[in-house]
Design goal:
Elements lengths: L6 H14 L6 E2 L1 H11 L5 H11 L7 E2 H10 L5
Antiparallel strand pairs: 1-2
Helix pairs in contact: 1-4, 2-3
Length: 80
């Protein structure tokens, strides 16, 4: 069961999302995601980036929206 996040923590995660959403369209595309992983986990293999993107993009629209990002962040996948 996922722990409830405080409004403050959600705002912090939203700020992180907005930072990597370089074009400000409310979505993170693959190039933005590559940049995000380069910052969070520099040792991530390039071959895993696209696979990870597809896993996070649960609605398969080619973008990571904030809800998908929040779920990913809560699961701590970015720590690997």
């Amino acid at each position: 069961m996922e722990a409830q996040l405080s409004e403050e923590k959600i705002a912090e995660i939203q700020s992180d999302f907005n930072f990597f959403d370089r074009d400000g369209n409310g979505q993170i595309d693959l190039p933005e995601f590559i940049e995000l992983l380069t910052v969070l986990s520099p040792k991530t293999k390039a071959s895993h980036v696209e696979e990870g993107f597809k896993l996070i993009d649960s609605n398969n629209d080619g973008y990571i929206d904030f809800e998908e990002f929040l779920s990913w962040w809560q699961e701590g996948w970015w720590e690997y």
